[in-house]
């Protein structure tokens, strides 16, 4: 329509003549007629659609009316069904109530009949003194509904001319009589140790409702057994070693056997949960008897007096100072050692080492037996209570028991701590007086010695004795099952290692031997081997002649170069050097021994050891962490002393030798020029001489040292070699052949010094790269920068700077630009 309006608007604007107006009028009339036709047709169609919709709605209204009629009929039927169902439910409920009443009446009559029957049987058995039959009848009566016995119907029906009493009165009388009889029989059987009669009588108490009495009598019976066995043990021979540990073990075995065997009877007759009641009472007796064992052990072994004597002995400073023990029959060796003590000290010792060892073994076994019993008791306790504890916790009878309290309050655990530490220290000092050092003649050779196992390495016997001693004390402590004892011992062990072994023994040995070391000493065979405890002369032969070792090494350099071993060292000085090497090995082996004793044997080879011995709470986890911490502390302190003693050895003996050995290396005639030609290119005499002298000097030391100590010493020597050679490279003038020859000599030197130790080879990286750059062609360098070309630089991990590469290239005398 809008489009037509616009069209007409345009036509009106273009009208110019009358004919155009007529045409427009005719057009308008024609279109108006057409529009009216279309409008009439639209109205007719709309009315037709509307009439159809109305007819459809009328049909739907008719259908809805029919549905509503059916719905009304259905509601009427449901209402009728509901009334019928309610009536049926009422009839069923009435019938069910009648059935229950009939069942109740039948059950009541049946129980009354059963009551009368059992009373008759019990009465007959009672007249014949068959109390077990009476008890079983009473049990059956007690299982009946209590209301039955007290009902008026039962009181009228059950009594008879023979049994006129009321059922409840009669049963109570029988229970009292049976209780007295069973108690008398039980005590009589217990006194006669008649196990069969005892068991039979024990089973009768729950039948007559006397569960508590039966359990109390049984508990007293078990406690009497424990007490009786304890008296037998304690009245026997108590001087024999280990007798008190065996006594406590025997008591624990008796109780564990009783708990295991009799729990089946108690479970069947009383109920398994009643075992807790029995165990609680028995545990009180066990605490009492075990405490008696500890008291007698303390008295017979004079424990308090020994501990007091140990404390006084430890408080005396002279017992902790290093002393020197000499033997006159050995003439040429000095060795600083602890002494076990003078005769006066030995008299004042509170206890000998052997007696202390026996005492600690028995003490440990006593605590071990109690710990094993505590674990058994705890596990069974929770089993009988049908409880699960994860992690396992000690139950109240153990945790708050008299013996647990006694162990702490009466200082048993603290006494063990004092004695075990004293045993460790005393035994160690004893081993010092028995020290033996191995001979090294088999190892002092220019041929490499292949060690088949660790036993072929020379170490002090003190370390072997100490390892055995530590293992024994660890076993004694771990076996106690007392976490606080092991925790305290680990603390003391770390202190002992640091103070006694590392400082007072090892460090003092090194300090004593250090002044006797000299740069002129070599490992060689000696004719006579002075003993490690032999007398040491105040001065050596060379010092008596006014020969200064270090001065000689500097002033007679050329003579030493010709023959490094031309300086004659007396046997005594060589033996001092040997001792020093042995002690270095001992120090390095201590790391292995400590790791073996603490981590390998306790945690790795026996992964369940701590959990089995310390099963409660988080004890095993905490102790495992503490063992690791203890080992870490010992090894850290040991490593500090290792580095110190190797550094002392290097500076005293090897530094001058290294300077002497390395002096002719990288020398090609003139000291500052490395100009080589075809005549001398193959001449590697200087480095070959170094290789020969190095092997003859170092192989004996390498044969003696373990791998770790040799690697530490070799690292210091290589640092010196690298520093000297790097300084020397910067002073050289090199041609192309000289650079190639220099690279060959350096490669041979590195192979000789480092062998297969590739970690130490890395120390030569900078020196190797300097020599490598010397061998590059002129085409490998950039003309503008003077440094190597980028493609060559990117192909290697350089440790020398571009300035160093440019500077080292300037050492070449035959470069083209």
Automatic annotation (TrEMBL):
Biased composition (Low complexity): 322-337
Main location (coarse class): Golgi
The keyword Calcium belongs to this UniProt entry's keyword annotation: no
Annotated localization: Golgi apparatus membrane
Keyword Membrane: yes
Gene3D superfamilies: 1.20.58.1970
BP GO annotations: cytoplasm to vacuole targeting by the Cvt pathway; pexophagy; retrograde transport, vesicle recycling within Golgi
Membrane topology of the entry: Peripheral membrane protein
Region (Disordered) residue spans: 314-344
InterPro entries, sorted: COG4, COG4_C, COG4_M, COG4_N
Keywords: Golgi apparatus, Membrane, Protein transport, Transport
Residue span, COG4 transport protein middle alpha-helical bundle domain: 171-511
Family affiliation: Belongs to the COG4 family.
The protein's name: Conserved oligomeric Golgi complex subunit 4
Species in which this protein is naturally found: Zygosaccharomyces rouxii
